[in-house]
Amino acid sequence: xxxxxxxxxxxxxxxxxxxxxxxxxxxxxxxxxxxxxxxxxxxxxxxxxxxxxxxxxxxxxxxxxxxxxxxxxxxxxxxxxxxxxxxxxxxxxxxxxxxxxxxxxxxxxxxxxxxxxxxxxxxxxxxxxxxxxxxxxxxxxxxxxxxxxxxxxxxxxxxxxxxxxxxxxxxxxxxxxxxxxxxxxxxxxxxxx
Length: 193
Known about the structure:
Number of helices: 9
Shape: elongated
Order of helices and strands: HHHHHHHHEEH
Distance between the termini: 70 Å
Helix content: 55-70%
Strand order of the largest sheet: 1-2
Strand content: under 5%
Largest sheet: 2 strands, antiparallel
């Protein structure tokens, strides 16, 4: 909820009533700017004894991957230090799922279109909701996803969906072939008898 992954109205319908869940507004936590993120990164890395240079100078990567969300940045930095290699979106996968899964289908569709670099995204309440949640920003006439690893996560979902579609298509084709063979055999048996 605090990360902007779900609206209060949706949360109320899941976990209780408006009388018991008496919050009257949503406040979205916004990412911090690069300078503040850089200060945080330097401060946190100062506690690491013999901190590798790649981590100290990796603030740009961490900022882009995390979208400026301090918690995501700290998770990225921690994984980078413990594994001694630059992390991928998988380090935040569970967090990204919590952010992405509760979105409405229309919002997910918008994100898929943006990842495909579609330029003519129509204004809608779903688009503005993604902007309000800090998931999207508009620069000139183009929308982009603020969290780099969220873009990578969405791309991985698209590949998975395509693979599932191909697998389902192959399964249907195999079933059709088997059915045609069965029909031909049964037709041949009827003619032969």
